[in-house]
TrEMBL record:
Name of the protein: SDR family oxidoreductase
Domain of life according to the entry: Bacteria
Native organism: Nisaea acidiphila
Family: Belongs to the short-chain dehydrogenases/reductases (SDR) family.
GO molecular function terms attached to this record: oxidoreductase activity, acting on the CH-OH group of donors, NAD or NADP as acceptor
CDD domains: SDR_c
Alphabetized InterPro entries for the sequence: NAD(P)-bd_dom_sf, SDR_fam
Length: 233
């Protein structure tokens, strides 16, 4: 899985490892402390570095479950997004998942089994200040549906988990307990709490399991109900 060194990715890696999965993590920087599996460093904004890392993993491991989690989310309205920023986001949030899919799909097809879980975002439904990020996550939702059609005949499912506000390190730094911003976010969520990384990890684990064999091409919003009335049917 990509983006595995911290935040949601680190929690997903730990959650899956505890349930018997052999985890191979990829991220630009090494995780702090121990990691629950093998780990490879790669700058996913660099297409050649990404290719080399994925090629090495594909040679060493049989990858049956792919979690495309790595992503960057700088703030910016449409007037503020530069071509360079948009290109950087597209590289990490869209191009890298394509490379991962291309690297591991042949093995999945050969084994007639695979689980692909893309990490999207409720921001794809519209969120002020996330103009470029929303574009990339909307693209991942669209790719999820198309990949599901293209790969389904070989026993491969492709789904997307789209989180709402999750209490990662970055979220906590920007919205500490008791702050006005955090209180406003919590008030807007029907279940009246911020999500935990484990909430996302459990959804990923379901899509990775044999139990999810008849679910494909789906986007699951793990958002405490924040998207009710906004998510398409």
């Amino acid at each position: 899985m990509t983006g595995a060194s911290r935040g949601i990715g680190r929690s997903v890696a730990k959650y899956l490892a505890e349930r018997g999965y052999q985890v191979i993590g990829v991220a630009r920087t090494e995780p702090a402390g121990s990691f629950p599996g093998a780990f490879r460093t790669a700058d996913l904004s660099d297409a050649e570095a990404t290719r080399a890392a994925l090629e090495g993993i594909a040679k060493e491991f049989e990858v049956d479950v792919l979690v495309n989690n790595a992503g960057i989310a700088p703030l910016g309205t449409v007037e503020e997004v530069t071509p360079e920023t948009l290109q950087h986001l597209m590289s990490v949030n869209v191009r890298a998942p394509y490379q991962c899919m291309q690297a591991f799909l042949p093995g999945m097809r050969g084994r007639k089994f695979g689980r692909v879980i893309n990490i999207g975002s409720r921001a794809a439904l519209g969120k002020h200040g996330r103009s470029a990020y929303a574009v990339t996550k909307g693209g991942i939702a669209a790719a999820t549906r198309t990949w599901a059609i293209e790969a389904g005949g070989d026993g491969i499912t492709v789904n997307c988990v789209a989180p709402g506000p999750i209490a990662t390190e970055m979220f906590e730094e920007g919205n500490p307990a008791g702050s006005a911003s955090r209180n406003a976010i919590e008030a807007a969520i029907p279940v009246k709490r911020i999500g935990q990384p484990e909430d996302v990890a459990s959804a990923v684990a379901f899509f990775a399991s044999d139990d999810a064999g008849f679910c494909t091409g789906q986007v699951l919003y793990v958002c405490g109900g924040l998207t009710v009335g906004s998510a398409p049917l």
